[in-house]
Amino acid sequence: MKYSTPAELILVGAGPGDPELLTVKAWRVLQQASTVLYDNLANPALLDLVPAGCEKVYVGKEPYGPTTSQERIHELIRDSAKKGGKIVRLKGGDPFVFGRGFEEVIYARELGLPVSYVPGISSMQASGLADIPLTHRGLSESIWIVTGTKKDGTLSQDLQLAMQSKATVVIYMGMKKLEEIAGAYQTAGMGELPAAIIQHATLPQERRAIGTAAGLPGMAAEHRLSHPAIIIIGEVVRFAKEKGGLSAHPDQLFEFLGVFQEFGQAEVRQRVLQEA
What is the rounded CA–CA span in Å between residue 75 and residue 185? Predict the structure, then answer.
């Protein structure tokens, strides 16, 4: 498709919520935008960065609520391209981490549009603000990032594979699957593995709960946690601090880390069960 006025699509990661976590490159791109298609998780404060004449179009998808279909978003990309200029697709977190961003890249390229990508900080990286390192030498050697809700609405079976490793498991879009996730860990004898839920990460209204994999449903109910939230399961959660709640004493952390390094994950779990 040929355009009378040059147009391009730029996928921009809006970060986890706090507008100050936007990258410098994303900030520059927004200042040059002709059109911004922004989603539900992009902080509205970022729209203050765009030029006065920029067209701002909401294309949000609220979990289990009103949604803008992917097909409609593609139509808006096409319609915006006919007007020309820089079309910024502003997506919460990182566009390529469960953001369907590459579907829009493929569609735009089929239209003949130049496409570029500006990475964003994903919400799982905000775990560090709760003193949860996603990796830690001698404790967690890898990270599994799993979707809690596949296209057909089911929980990803990759969770079963992740549970067989020492990896930190991060689950996106899993708040409607807490019972199922907790059941999977209990069935595998891993119900006492430390777990955290973080809602609205990096924002003033952020809320967290720290507990165990088996206790995930109760944690959400007690702290009134809902989406958008991430679930983190693994030994690294022992370092966590909880807003308005409990966290492990530093001496306990060093003790568990020493046990883990010497004897492994199974011994740590056994000691937790003995002290429970």
Answer: 42
pTM (2 decimals)?
0.84
Residue 39 maps to which CATH number?
Answer: 3.40.1010.10
Q: Give residue-wise pLDDT tens across range 123-157.
A: 999 999 999 999 998 889 899 999 988 888 888 89
Q: How many domains does the chain have?
A: 2
Going 110 to 112 to 113 to 117, the CA torsion angle's sign is positive
Alpha-carbon gap, residue 268 to 233, rounded angstroms:
15
Among 25, 56, 61, 83, the active-site one is: 61
Tokens of 191: 């119900």
Token pair, residue 190, equals 């891993």
243 as an active site residue: the answer is no
Cis previous bond, 228, omega within 30: yes
| CA dist 144 → 46, 158, 171, 183 (Å) | 30, 9, 8, 19
Is 39 one of the annotated active-site residues of the chain? yes
